[in-house]
Write a structure and sequence with these properties.
Largest sheet: none
Number of helices: 9
Helix content: 55-70%
Order of helices and strands: HHHHHHHHH
CATH topology of the largest domain: AhpD-like
Distance between the termini: 17 Å
Strand content: under 5%
CATH superfamily of the largest domain: AhpD-like
Number of strands: 0
Structural class: mainly alpha
């Protein structure tokens, strides 16, 4: 990482903030937290907002994680992909779909996400995430196709997840946040 890992000795933070992050993370800070905790307001807001995006939105967790993985691959946010590919699989996605995502992102996923391992909705979600990430603007035809599969609330939630993880990716890449060390590496 381009900055030192946060420690309580380097920059004390309120115990209730650190405890809230630890609770969301299952008891252990990850490298992203060790960057965010340099700023109390940022860490507090991030923890609350990302918790809502990750765990409180009822829109399909599998499709949300597919969109997040798309953003991660397009932005080079390996840390993000490292954390979200397993979440995609846990939400019912398949390794074949992740392999297909890798193939379509290697091309121009904004225009086509055609792959035999991906269904129509998955292709639309990948294209949507790709257009939001690369172009910001989304083609009307693509948005209209999404409206055939998602209600307004689902569209808002999917859009927010993609936008949020574009922010996360840019934070991670700019600061050089790397995946946590794996045992045996």
């Amino acid at each position: 990482m381009r900055i030192p890992d946060w420690t309580p000795e380097a920059k004390p933070q309120p115990a209730e903030l650190v405890d809230a992050i630890l609770a969301r993370r299952g008891g252990q800070l990850i490298n992203l937290d060790k960057a965010l905790l340099w700023s109390e307001p940022l860490a507090r807001g991030w923890n609350t907002y990302l918790k809502a995006v990750r765990t409180e939105l009822p829109t399909s967790p599998r499709l949300r994680e597919l969109a997040i993985c798309t953003v991660a691959l397009l932005t080079g946010a390996l840390y993000e992909y490292h954390h979200h590919a397993p979440d995609f699989l846990a939400a019912g996605g398949t390794q074949a779909e992740l392999d297909a995502l890798d193939r379509v992102v290697a091309g121009d996923a904004r225009r086509s996400a055609a792959d035999a391992a991906l269904g129509e909705i998955e292709q639309l979600v990948i294209r949507y995430a790709a257009q939001m990430t690369r172009d910001v603007q989304v083609e009307d035809a693509l948005f209209d196709a999404l409206k055939a599969h998602f209600d307004t609330t689902q569209l808002v939630e999917l859009t927010a997840a993609i936008a949020t993880y574009n922010m996360v990716a840019r934070f991670l890449v700019a600061l050089g946040v790397r995946p946590e060390a794996q045992p045996g590496l």
